[in-house]
Amino acid sequence: MSVSEPEADHPQNPIRFGILGCARIAHKFCRAISLLPSGTATISCISSRSLDKARQFATSARLLSSAKLLSPYEALLEDTSVDAVYIPLPTSQHVTWAVASAAKGKHVLIEKPVALCVEEVERILEACEKNGVLFMDGSTWQHHPRTAEMRRLIDDPNRIGQLRLIHTSCSFLATPEFLQNDIRVKPDLDSLGALGDLGWYCIGSILWATNYNLPRTVVASPCLSLNSSGVILSCSASLYWDNGLVATLNCSFLSHVSMDLSVHGSKGTLLVRDLTIPYREDAALFEVISGAHFAELHIGWTKKPEEVVVETPLPQEALMVLEFVKEVKLVWDKKSEPNLKWADTSRKTQMVLDAVKRSIDQNFEPVYL
């Protein structure tokens, strides 16, 4: 197993990122880097299909004087000043460039959805494992301290109890320009549409709540909206487990913004309204209620939900990069092999996403995992 070898004394050096592609979301990544403690991480290279586009991006991100501008993408992968690659390219290009990055010994941080199907995800993960590099997808909400606190309460047998029902919704009302021109509605770039872009969050949060226990059955709803090219603009699905747990999801480019997760158990309920992008950067909240009953004569509840507020010193995207850096340095320091946790969560999320898509393609028939 080969491991990328940065310059001498690398555990004390910042992780040097190369950005492979100049998508708008890459600006958020650059901001996250800028918020980290000095010496944690830097952006050493920016690559695009054209140097002009790379220069425009570097100027708008205030990196023109500090990052090398390279074209084509292969030039970044050959650059020895790059330890890790951030990939915000269209989903159809992920497998090509993630595999190529891993082959060059670059650690891989990739935007979601990871790929168009689980077979592509497995090619990426195989390349990362073969070359001893870390893989992580860009699901930033998993790195917020609120998520850890919600995990603690869900796992507490006295708070939520046995899981019975999970519901998620992730949506926004797209503009006419978005629906006409955005890469997320183009079949050759992001053919999964809303299912890939927003459904990744829905499925990921459902699986997270179950500790990544896969459902047995997945059924898409016939309430489906497609554009003229057959790309999904809105869809819903239900997931079923053998123990009686049911989960529902809705993802859409056609309805008001939502980022809901509700987890209902035998003893309590947990509810969060802003899972993927918190209302505030410095703190996030959720509600939990346990042991409630209807009051006498059904005139109210015996308890009100408790509001739990979790503060954070950094926004979740910066915490994601910090976690990535920490794990890369453990590999550099030869204290551990690359953490496979993130690979496993991405692979399972893609498996369920594929099952939803397959159910849609098979006239909403059940798909068994």
UniProtKB/TrEMBL annotation:
Domain of life according to the entry: Eukaryota
SUPFAM superfamilies the record matches: Glyceraldehyde-3-phosphate dehydrogenase-like, C-terminal domain, NAD(P)-binding Rossmann-fold domains
Organismal lineage: Eukaryota, Viridiplantae, Streptophyta, Embryophyta, Tracheophyta
One annotated GO molecular function: nucleotide binding
Family: Belongs to the Gfo/Idh/MocA family.
Segments forming domain Gfo/Idh/MocA-like oxidoreductase N-terminal: 15-136
Organism: Carex littledalei
Residue span(s) of domain GFO/IDH/MocA-like oxidoreductase: 148-270
Annotated InterPro entries: Gfo/Idh/MocA-like_OxRdtase_N, GFO_IDH_MocA-like_dom, NAD(P)-bd_dom_sf
UniProt protein name: Oxidoreductase family, NAD-binding Rossmann fold
Record PANTHER family: OS10G0403700 PROTEIN, PTHR46368
